[in-house]
Amino acid sequence: MSDKKGKPTPKRKVAEAKLKVSSLSPGASKEAKRALKDQARKRRMESRAAYMRGEESALPLRDRGAARRFVRTYIDERKSVTEYFLIIIMVVLFLTIIPIPAVQLAAVAVMYSSMIFITLDGIFLSRRIKRLVKEKFPEEPTRGIGLYGWMRATQLRRLRAPAPQVGPIKKKKK
Hints:
By secondary structure, the protein is mainly alpha-helical. It has helices at about 10-20, 30-55, 65-75, 85-95, 100-135, 145-155. The radius of gyration is 26 Å and the shape is extended. The protein starts with 11 loop residues before the first helix and ends in a 21-residue tail after the last helix.
């Protein structure tokens, strides 16, 4: 048999207040609450800085591991048109607004050709990354690592997270 509670269901406001856990008592001073907020903000900023530096403990699961670090370094060392894809698309969108059919046609042609180029580059880059990771880290799974590298390659260098730890390698002139 089921027993009834014997008391009315609490109002939503009361139930939510019970769920809300505060490290300060309700009568705490504004200074104490402000100090707690400042500490929380400082912890968040330190955590974000550690993430951007690429510290392993601060990285989310998708970025952890020696293989992922290798892929980030590999991508950050190379210079490619792929990282400027977003800028190219923004310029193309602007050019399609111009009411001259020849300019619009050229913009659309640039857009499709850049999309094809970047897709092919991404496929070949993904295969190359998987091959290199298999050689260097035979025990690491390669599932998703090619796409991880491709997505990083399509981002502008200054917008990549974690931040690049190496600069692009300069090609030597002969």
